[in-house]
UniProtKB/TrEMBL annotation:
The lineage of its organism: Bacteria, Pseudomonadati, Pseudomonadota, Gammaproteobacteria, Alteromonadales. Its EC number is 3.1.3.11. Residues 202-332 form the Fructose-1-6-bisphosphatase class 1 C-terminal domain. One of its GO terms (cellular component) is cytosol. This is Fructose-1,6-bisphosphatase class 1.
Amino acid sequence: MAENMKTLGEFIVEKQLDFPDASGSLSQLLGAIRLAAKVVNREINKAGLVDIIGSAGQENVQGEQQQKLDIYANDKFKAAMEARGEVCGVASEEEDDFVAFNNTQSKNGKYIVLMDPLDGSSNIDVNVSVGTIFSIYKRVSPVGSEVTEADFLQPGRKQIAAGYVIYGSSTMLVYSTGNGVHGFTLDPSIGVFCLSHQDMKIPTDGKIYSINEGNYIKFPEGVKRYIKFCQQEAPEQGRPYTSRYIGSLVSDFHRNLLKGGIFIYPTTASAPKGKLRLLYECNPMAFLMEQAGGKASDGFSSILDIKPSELHQRTSFFVGSTNMVNTAEAMMADFSGPDAETNL
Ligand SMILES: O=P(O)(O)OC[C@H]1O[C@](O)(COP(=O)(O)O)[C@@H](O)[C@@H]1O
């Protein structure tokens, strides 16, 4: 197919030409992510053969056991971005605090990056697809000055670009700079990402719901009602829907993006603020989903309008086909919102 004969590098440059005053620094940054993705992909593909599986024997700031691949991916993406000079600092799931790059070039970098270097860690050792998630902003502090926490605590709507890499049956890089969502598949025989999914759009309706039902009893009433709605017999509306849950956000998101569907990670009794992290999991996925014609909320309002207050803050996450998210939100409003009492 003709479009396959276009590489990610060529596509990035082509898109840059749409902006005559573009400096090329975002293209450079995307190039860094492309390189790090290939290096991490190589390690993941041979994970069972080299000493990179299993725990690294230490915890991250969120008290989660860090996997060796978490640290490996974190180091590779950080190194690739520091080497380019376009990025003045990064924040990562695997770093307690943000990391400012102090080499002269980076100090003059105008971008900051937030990332989940290895998403779906619980699936690494069992050969189930995992991913990398990234979110890019322009810094708010003056170029050349010290990077500040304010550079990272920007609402998702301010993102310049976002994307993910999925290390699955094939490896893909999917990203958006605010002009549609485009997917590139890595051709391992030539080591190049080739355009395979241009201008991805999610169907407004789907037949897949994705949630860890193992937590059912701890879910808010609105979510319990929505799950029942998905499971009810209503053939004229295509219900019951199918339940699919991989347990890697990137993989569950990617499937729904292609087929239509909804992914929900709500608050639970044991995670009253939700589990997923706003800045480097939910904001980038919400940016992509809105660019693909879908919707992303915390069950009540848009994820992209949340004003962050902490680097590793968590949120509940409802993302996918617009009609499905609208229905779930309506049930949250009725049964878990401020007027829930009157409806129960
Ligand atoms: O095992 P649970 O509670 O269903 O959580 C699965 C979710 O947690 C995550 O694994 C969190 O991500 P990390 O692996 O990066 O910590 C998501 O990818 C996934 O959607």
